[in-house]
Write a structure and sequence with these properties.
Helices cover 78% and strands 0% of the residues. With 151 residues, the chain is mainly α. Among the domains are: 57 residues, no CATH class; 32 residues. The longest helix has 50 residues.
Length: 151
């Protein structure tokens, strides 16, 4: 095998040869190489077989029947399949990351903003406790129905 023929093996010209895209000189050189190289002849045979199978598969126009609501069924199936994708440990990691980010966010707000946020939370808690205390003070006796009517 000459040096040029070895280069032909390395160039992988099978697709271009089968498609007729090689120029005349290269086609002659490639055909001469095929006469002396059994591996390239086998590769060319396999490539032609692949092209024939692809042509046969693409030329078949048999349509696959699908139900009318096929897209809805696929969408429902995809939505239900995704529900179980996340594991419990992933949820815990996400919650931990969110908590850390919230803590960092509050820390970065600074002392003045933190004071304002805690003041709002303190007012809310005070209001809730005062309402709970008010409910304890209210009499637990029920008024007769006649006193509830507006006449």
């Amino acid at each position: 095998m000459t040096r040029d023929q070895e280069k032909i093996c390395e160039r992988n010209l099978f697709a271009a040869y089968v498609d007729g895209e090689l120029d005349t000189d290269l086609t002659v050189l490639f055909e001469d190489h095929l006469e002396g190289c059994a591996e390239c002849r086998a590769e060319l045979r396999a490539h032609r077989l692949l092209v024939c199978e692809l042509d046969a598969a693409m030329s078949e126009s048999a349509e696959i029947p699908v139900p009318n609501d096929f897209s809805r069924m696929v969408a429902a199936r995809a939505a239900s399949d995704m529900r179980g994708v996340r594991t419990r440990s992933e949820h815990r990691k996400a919650l931990t990351i969110c908590a850390v980010l919230a803590f960092v966010g509050f820390a970065l707000l600074g002392a003045a903003a933190r004071k304002t946020v805690f003041m709002i939370v303190e007012r809310f808690v005070t209001t809730v406790f005062s309402l709970v205390g008010l409910l304890r003070v209210l009499p637990t006796t029920r008024l007769p129905d006649s006193q509830w009517c507006l006449e």
